[in-house]
TrEMBL record:
It comes from Dipus sagitta. Residues 49-250 form the Tail specific protease domain. SMART domains: TSPc. This is Interphotoreceptor retinoid-binding protein. GO terms for cellular component: cone matrix sheath.
C-alpha cells in the first residue's frame, strides 16, 4: 500500500530497487525510471558496429602497454573485445603490443578500470598466459534467456608466443573491476598463474540486460548469465561476492605494491643460493646438508608475496627437514646488527649494502 501511494516515479524506482536488492541480497538488480528510453536496451561493448579503422582506435584506447623499470611488462585493459574483434585484429595486437611484452621478466595485468567486456574474449587472455599447448577447461557459463551452457577452454594455438610459465604475472584489481575482468582474475588466481593485488572486485555479472517493465518507463537491470566456476564444479564463484585479492591494498597503491612484490620474487633465486652456500660451508650437522639443499632447490615459492611469507616458509621447511629448531632464517632490517657468525637474514640476501667509514682512522678501528 505504501509503495502504491508513491506519486513520484523516480522515488518509486529507488524504493523498489532498495526493496528488491535487500530481499534478494543482490546489488546487481536495479529498477530505473527512464522516460526518454524508447526501447529495451542491453549493455553493449564499446567495440560494437565499428569499421576496422574505428576498431583499431578503440583497441588502442582500451588496451595500453609499456615496459616499466626492472623490465616489468605493464598491460592495461579497460574493455575486453570479443572473439570476432580479436580474430580481426589479432595480428596487430601481437605485433604492436604482445611482442613488446614478451621479452619482459614479469607482467602486470591492470584490470582496475575494466568494468565489462565480452565473454568470448576470456580464452584469449588466459591462453597467452597459460604455459602449454594442452587445452584446459577454465569455466562454464550458463545463459538464462537461451537456457544454454557454454564451456570456456584455453586455445590450442595462439598467434605469436605464450608468456613463459617461469615468469611471474600480477593482476591488479579495484572495487570497480567487474564482469569479464573478474572472471579473468578469478581463473588466473584459481590456476595459480597470477598473484591478484588490490581490492575485492565488484562481484558483478558477466552479462546484464535492461528489460522494460510492461509498457511503462520503468526498467529492470538484471544479470542473465552466470559463471558455474572452473571445470564446471558448480561451487561458489566470484559473482555477488567478488574476487578476493591475494594481497589486499588500496587500488591506487596496487601497482606500487605489485612492483615491490616482483622485486622480492626476482631476488628469490639469490636468497636460495646464499642459504645453500651457508649450509654447505657452516652447518655442523653435515649428514643433513644434502637433504636441506635438495629441499631448498625443490621449494615452491609461488605463494610468496612478502619477506614475512618467505621467512615463515623457509623456517618451516628447513626445520622440518633438519629436525633442528636452531636452524633459523630471519628478516634483518638494514640498520640492524646481526650476531657474529654466518647467520643470514632474508633482507641481507636481498640487498647487502655494507657501510665502510670514509676516514682512514675509522677504517683502521673497524
Amino acid at each position: 500500500g505504501e509503495i502504491l501511494g508513491i506519486s513520484d516515479p523516480q522515488t518509486l524506482a529507488d524504493v523498489l530497487t532498495t526493496g528488491v536488492q535487500s530481499s534478494l541480497n543482490d546489488p546487481r538488480l536495479v529498477i530505473s525510471y527512464e522516460p526518454s528510453t524508447l526501447e529495451t536496451s542491453q549493455q553493449a561493448s564499446a567495440f560494437t558496429n565499428l569499421t576496422r579503422d574505428e576498431l583499431l582506435l578503440q583497441v588502442q584506447k582500451n588496451i595500453r602497454h609499456e615496459v616499466l623499470e626492472g623490465n616489468v611488462g605493464y598491460l592495461r585493459v579497460d574493455d575486453l573485445p570479443g572473439q570476432e574483434v580479436l580474430s580481426e585484429l589479432g595480428g596487430f595486437l601481437v605485433a604492436h603490443v604482445w611482442r613488446k611484452l614478451m621479452g619482459t621478466s614479469a607482467l602486470v595485468l591492470d584490470l582496475r578500470h575494466c568494468t565489462g567486456g565480452q565473454v568470448s574474449g576470456i580464452p584469449y587472455v588466459i591462453s597467452y598466459l597459460h604455459p602449454g599447448n594442452t587445452v584446459v577447461h577454465v569455466d562454464t557459463i550458463y545463459d538464462r534467456p537461451s537456457n544454454t551452457t557454454t564451456e570456456i577452454w584455453t586455445l590450442p594455438k595462439v598467434l605469436g608466443e605464450r608468456y613463459s610459465a617461469d615468469k611471474d604475472v600480477v593482476v591488479l584489481t579495484s572495487s570497480r573491476t567487474g564482469g569479464v575482468a573478474e572472471d579473468i582474475a578469478y581463473i588466473l588466481k584459481q590456476m595459480r598463474r597470477a598473484i591478484v593485488v588490490g581490492e575485492r572486485t565488484e562481484g558483478g555479472a558477466l552479462d546484464l540486460q535492461k528489460l522494460r517493465i510492461g509498457q511503462s518507463n520503468f526498467f529492470l537491470t538484471v544479470p542473465v548469465s552466470r559463471s558455474l566456476g572452473p571445470l564446471g564444479g558448480g561451487g561458489q564463484t566470484w559473482e555477488g561476492s567478488g574476487v578476493l585479492p591475494c594481497v589486499g591494498t588500496p587500488a591506487e597503491q596496487a601497482l606500487e605494491k605489485a612492483l615491490a612484490i616482483l622485486t622480492l620474487r626476482r631476488a628469490l633465486p639469490g636468497v636460495v643460493l646464499r642459504l645453500q652456500e651457508a649450509l654447505q660451508d657452516y652447518y655442523t650437522l653435515v649428514d643433513r646438508v644434502p637433504a636441506l639443499l635438495h629441499h631448498l632447490a625443490s621449494m615452491d615459492f609461488s605463494a610468496v608475496v612478502s619477506e614475512e611469507d618467505l621467512v615463515t616458509k623457509l623456517n618451516a621447511g628447513l626445520q622440518a627437514v633438519s629436525e633442528d629448531p636452531r636452524l633459523l632464517v630471519r628478516a634483518v632490517g638494514p640498520r640492524e646488527t646481526s650476531s657474529p657468525g654466518p647467520e643470514i637474514g632474508a633482507e641481507d640476501a636481498l640487498e647487502a649494502v655494507p657501510e665502510v667509514p670514509s676516514s682512514e682512522e675509522a677504517r683502521k678501528a673497524l
